[in-house]
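Field log, afternoon session.

UNIT: design team B
ACTIVITY: writing a sequence onto a fixed backbone
BACKBONE:
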């Protein structure tokens, strides 16, 4: 598969959204899911209850494939959040400050590499 972010110097035939390709926008969005506070915000706006939005989260699972995951800055927390958001209970529980704090702590601890 061709590199989604390649710049061959040629004019791309891909449609742009505000100057960005759809892949670039989806990459930016999926990476934001690694932030538990952002997930709490999405839940407070009732987006995580919206069937269309939940389907979009399912669609974004293509980032679990190695050819796309390589573009993620923080693949472990991003993919973990994407996996968790597939579960209805998690989408409901993320409204809880305790759940947000626990996820934030897990992400912090997973970023610390033992020496």
């Amino acid at each position: 598969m061709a590199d989604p972010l390649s710049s061959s110097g040629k004019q791309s035939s891909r449609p742009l959204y505000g100057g960005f390709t759809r892949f670039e926008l989806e990459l930016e969005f999926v990476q934001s899911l690694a932030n538990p506070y952002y997930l709490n915000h999405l839940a407070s706006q009732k987006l995580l209850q919206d069937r269309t939005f939940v389907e979009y989260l399912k669609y974004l699972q293509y980032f679990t494939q190695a050819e796309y995951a390589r573009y993620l800055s923080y693949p472990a927390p991003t993919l973990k959040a994407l996996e968790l958001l597939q579960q209805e209970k998690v989408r409901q529980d993320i409204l809880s400050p305790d759940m947000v704090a626990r996820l934030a702590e897990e992400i912090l601890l997973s970023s610390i590499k033992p020496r």
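LOG NOTE: The CA atoms of residues 22 and 57 lie 15 Å apart.
NEXT ACTIVITY: expression trials, pending approval
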